[in-house]
Each structure stands twice: as C-alpha cells, then as structure tokens.
Amino acid sequence: MKDIRTAVIGTGLIANSAHLAAIQRIGSGFDVVACYDMRVSAAKETAERFNIPNVYEDVDKMLEEMKPELVIVATSNASHKEMSLKALKRGANVVCEKPVAMKYADAVELFDEAEKRGLHFFPAQTERFRQERLAARKLVKTGELGEVYFAEFESVRRRGIPQWGFFHMKEYNVGGPFADLGVHEIDHMLYTLGNPKPITVSGSTWSKIGNSGNELEISAEQSGALGGIEITPRPYDWKEFSVEDMATGIIRLEGDLTINFKCSWALNVPDRFTRTYAGTKAGMRYGNDHPMTIYSDVAGWQSDKVPYVYGDADYPSDLPFPGHVGLLKNVYGVLRNGEEPIVKKEETLNVTTVIEAFYKSAELHKEINCLKLRGEE
Question: Which H helix or E strand runs over 107?
Fold first, then answer.
C-alpha cells in the first residue's frame, strides 16, 4: 500500500523523540517529505537527523507545495488550533499533540472542520497504549472493581520544569503541569471509566518555585525529556516563567463519580505518579512507586492481590515515548484500512471541557459548571 505522504509542523523534542522516532521504528507506511519550525535551525537539524528532504520557513508554503496527506502538529499548545486548521483546510489529515485545544469550542471547531472535509483529526493521547493503563481499563470494564465511584491521580515532579522550548511561557503553552501532565491522566481516567461527561470542575494553581529563581540541578529525564534532549534547545530563562508550577482540583462527573488530582513541575515533596480507583467490590492502585494492586477481601479478611499483567500493547519500552508507535499504527490503520480511531471525538471533547473549566476555575477561584460552559444548560 502507498506510504502516507507526511509533513511535520514543529520540530522540537516531541517531534524528534516521539513522532519521528516512532515512524522510524515502525519502518514503513509513512513518507516524511517536509518539516517546518519557527526556528529554521531546529527544522534543519531535524531534517538532517531523519533524512527529511525539504525544510520550510513558511508553513503555508510547505502545505501548498508538498500537499501532504497527513500533517503532524507538534508545536506549543497555543498554536495547536491554528496549525491544525491550516493543515485541514489544505486537505490534510492531522495528528495533533495533546492538548489539541485549551477550550471546548476550539476542539469542536477542529473536529467539525475535519468532518466537513472528509478528513480525520487524531489527538495524540499516547499514554493510552501503555500496558498497565490498558489493564486498568480492562479491570474496570469487566466489573472486577464493582461500581467505581472515586478515582485519584498524582503526577508530581519534585523538580521537573521543562527547560527547552516554550513550556514555561503562557504566551506559547497557556498552562503548566496540568496542561502537560494532567491532560494524559484526565484522558486515561475518563477513557477507563467509560467517558462520563464532566459536570463541574474546581481547581487551584500556584507559581511559587518556577518563577523564584531557585533553580536546582536536574537531569533532562526529571523534566520529561525521556531519553535525553537530542535537539539543540533554545536557552532557558526562569524570568520567562509565567505558567503554574502546581495544580490541584476535583472533577465531578455524571454517574456520581469524582476524580481528585494534583500535578506539579516543582513542589517540595517526593516525585509521585500514581492512579487510584475505588469501587464497591474492590479498589486498584498503581504507579511509579507501587505495582498494580487490587484491594478487596477474601473469606472475611482484607486481601491485596498483585496481578501479573501481560499483553501485546504497541508500547516498545526502549523508546523514550513509546505510545506514539501505537498512535501512528492506528493512524495508518484508519487511513489505509478503514479502522476506527482509538482516540475518539467525544472523549477528546470531554477532556478539553475539563481543561477549560479547570483554568477558568483557578482564575476565578470558584467552581465551574461544565454543562453551562458547553452551552448544554
């Protein structure tokens, strides 16, 4: 079958270490013909590394001349909508890094534009392909936990502010760790729980360390550059820090479900990445410091069970961002074999609703009604 003619918008770390590395690993199916970046030096560096024949300083010119069938949007958050719409209006399917938008109406517009043109819009929610997350979903769906009514996640870096690109600048990234780390967990939890609609969100944010000048030596991996930083990054300056470094909140969902959360790039507590589900029959917890464990009872005693999770997830552990392999295999399957997208429109719209409501709640210091935000009340 003919390879998918592909162009890349944004050649930072996630394009290099995730998307292009995944395409390289898959080995066939994608023909990357061009790349663009607002820093042309970064585009040239990426083109040389991955043998991409064309480098552009003008994204519109690239889309016009190259006529790609698929465009990968891997820019900072604030430009996801703009770049995705450019590609869609030129007739290209789009893979867009998470979060695809920071507002519900923008996400609706992106999907509507794709549907109007008979195209596909693929959100890059790549953590879904992790084996333990697939196992968690299976345990919930098969009723092993009974009726799940409470969930919680922690995505906490003691010190882990990304010191490359524009993550730390509100103008480019809009949000901090909630937009970076939290969006993966929200997507995964809603997916696991059957995509319940968010009803209300209450959130708080702080910027206490990132903008203080109290810099500590950290590794690239601590700040999310898994596998190291292969690109030449722009210089980092803490004085530019203008997003939150800590976020916490509560999401109330239809079906009497509640999710509590906290995430940070800088917080004076130990690193912690855990997910917890509580149901009427059993509970479940797993994370970086804890194997997946089921909390239930047996013969009248409390009992903890540790399942041995096996499977064939498209998540090769030797890559820094393995989930992009599963994502791009699904993209190929949709475009060439008529498969169903794994990450669906309705799921992404719920995630985007939570994102918008969270930041609005933090700004206004009050709970936000998600149905009203979506014009459904």
Answer: helix 104-116
Interhelix angle 183-192/131-141, nearest 10 degrees: 30
Q: Are 195 and 302 in contact (CB under 8 A)?
A: no
What is the distance, to the nearest Å, from the Cα of residue 33 to the centroid of all Cα atoms in its chain? Answer: 25
Question: Which tens digits make up the pLDDT trace of 201-212?
Answer: 999 999 999 999
Please identify which residue in the block is written with the tokens 């534009």: 113
- Give the Cα separation of 45 and 119 in Å (integer): 30
In 3D space, the residue among 374, 376, 159, 108 whose CA is nearest the CA of residue 264 turns out to be: 159
In the sheet that 246-253 helps form, which strands lie side by side, from edge to edge?
301-305, 290-298, 283-287, 272-279, 148-156, 257-264, 246-253, 198-206, 368-369
List of residues 6+ apart from 263 with CB closer than 8 A: 153, 154, 155, 156, 177, 178, 181, 182, 185, 246, 247, 248
Predicted confidence (pLDDT) per residue in 221-277, tens digit: 777 767 667 777 778 888 999 999 999 999 999 999 999 999 999 999 999 999 999
Q: Lowest-confidence range among 2-6, 56-60, 131-135? A: 131-135
The structure's pTM equals 0.94
Q: What is the DSSP letter of 159?
A: B
- Calpha distance 219→154 (Å, rounded): 21
